[in-house]
Amino acid sequence: MIEITNTRMNHLIDPSLHIWGWEISVYLFAGGMVAGMMIILGFFFFKGREKEVDCVCSILPFLSIIVLSLGMFALFLDLEYKLHVFRFYTTFIITSPMSWGSWILILVYPVLALSVLLKLPKIISKLFPKIEKISAQLKSNRKLVKSVGVFNMILGASLGIYTGVLLSTFQARPLWNSPILALLFLVSGLSVAAALVHMISKSVYERELLAKADNAFLITELFIIILFVIGMVTSVKIHQDAITLFLGGPYTAVFWIFVVLMGIVIPLIIQSLAVSHKVKHTPLAPIFVMIGGLILRFVIVNAGQYSSWY
Amino acid sequence: MARYGMAIDTTKCVGCMDCVVACKTENNVPEGLNRDWIQTIVNGEFPNLTMEIRSERCNHCTNAPCVSCCPTGASHYHDGGIVLVHHDLCTGCKACVASCPYDARFINPEGYADKCTFCVHRVEEGKDPACVSVCPTYCMTLGDLDDPNSEISKLVKSKNNHTNLPEAGTIPNIYYLIGDNND
Ligand code: SF4
Ligand code: SF4
Fold first, then answer.
1. Contacts of A19 in chain B (CB under 8 A)
2. Is the Cα dihedral A180, A182, A185, A189 positive or negative?
3. How many CB atoms lie within 10 A of CB A298?
């Protein structure tokens, strides 16, 4: 038997780490959702869907800018030395995922702004005819639209992967220290974004397409979660200990009930019935997917901090 | 260039916490926070017990994740491999705090990441760190691990020792001495 006593009782460090609260979970959720929206938007631009009147491309860039800004505001709130926030942009540290993320986020904004121009919401076209003119000119250049589509997809994928890599590179926190986390967060971001488009799109074609896509993302997510758990269970002792948090430990119920059952399995069943026209499309399944995605970030951020080498 | 490390003789340490108090006084460490602490590990079944008492702090790792993950360059290697934080570069993002497997860091109420500095301000004047200088059992030694003739190198060579969580791959530079080599 080993008994360890420690005189240290540092605020937010002991007895277990709790330095990152809701702000980081919300930031990761927002980042993942924007990543998913950018990939979908990029795909639509690539396919030339911006020519359709009811295309969701007129909403997604705007929404992405708002959601991303909210996420970045949450991140800002988390900083303990807020006045120094500009320090992220006075350097680039190649070994630091957070540094990569900061720069990716900065690149995302101009691409989203350009995307807004490519498919202006009607209200803007009416209010600002000059902008409408610029937009029409840009839109007529098919190559440009395609390139913006590709940039959206690349940056979206980078952003989605980054939200997972940020955590997975912390070897000090065994639960996070799995490369699968990057994929999990990317696919979860995609499923959340697909759910959103499924819910808000005015086009029947898009709703059907995104419901089908979301089903594929949810199935993939389920597989990734299973792989994540298997990877941890069959890994070294500290990983085995870490995954007990989800297998009997304090995060078991919230993970399996809210993330897996409510956030993946139930909406998957509902949406499968909807795409085979057995039930109507309702916002219920997409809302479940989005709440599940948010809870996933909360659970991973909190449980990861709970796991350690000791 | 020196490579600073510390040897802490666990067979001498009595856990009196003088080092903890000295550090707080020397470095004005805010109330409720500690840059160094005492860990006591009791091993075995009664009556066959062993006990290791050791004074712990940042290991000034050679492969420090807190340095590599810092997005602003605030966490850095100072001369002699001492891991320090530039307060004016730190954003308080806490990545470094999450990255340390030893939980050696914390956030100073002023907003920057804080931890043991090996009392670099004293070491650069040729003095010992505060903790080393007050220890009543003389169990701590700071010195150059790259110099084979330094006291620390001789201690590490002549005594059985271990580092803390070497399997974490951080290459810690604090050696815990656990008895003579010929024990
Ligand atoms: S002990 Fe922790 S804070 Fe100190 S250098 Fe190593 S990883 Fe960094
Ligand atoms: S809290 Fe400061 S020292 Fe630590 S990683 Fe962030 S910027 Fe770097």
1. 94, 97-98, 107
2. negative
3. 20
**Terminal CA-CA length for chain B:** 34
Nearest by Cα to B68 from B181, B171, B183: B171
Q: What is the pLDDT of residues B51-83, one digit of tens each?
A: 999 999 999 999 999 999 999 999 999 999 999
| ipTM of predicted complex | 0.93
CB contact under 8 A, B103 and A308: yes
Average pLDDT, chain A: 95
Cβ distance A10 to B111 less than 8 Å, yes or no, reads no
Task: Please work out whether the CB of residue B178 comes within 6 Å of at least one atom of ligand 2.
Answer: no
Residue A111 Ramachandran class (φ > 0 left, ψ -120 to 50 alpha, else beta) = alpha
With the most atoms of ligand 2 within 8 angstroms of its CB, the residue from B106, B112, B117 to mutate is B112
CB contact under 8 A, A84 and B106: no
Q: What is the C-alpha separation between B94 and B129, in angstroms, rounded?
A: 26
Secondary structure letter of residue B45 according to DSSP:
E
Kindly report the nearest CA distance between residue A7 and chain B, in angstroms: 5
Q: φ and ψ at A275, to 5 degrees?
A: -75, -20
Alpha carbon nearest to ligand 2 atom 8, residue: B70
The DSSP code sequence of B54-121 is EEE-----TT-HHHHT-SSS-EEE-GGG-EEE-TTT-----HHHHH-TT---EE-TTSSEE---TTHH
pLDDT in tens, A107-140: 999 999 999 999 888 888 888 889 999 999 999 9
Q: What is the value of pTM for the model shown?
A: 0.95
3-state secondary structure of B124: coil
Going by alpha carbons, the residue nearest to atom 4 of ligand 1 is: B58
With a cut of 70, say whether residue B182 has pLDDT above it.
no
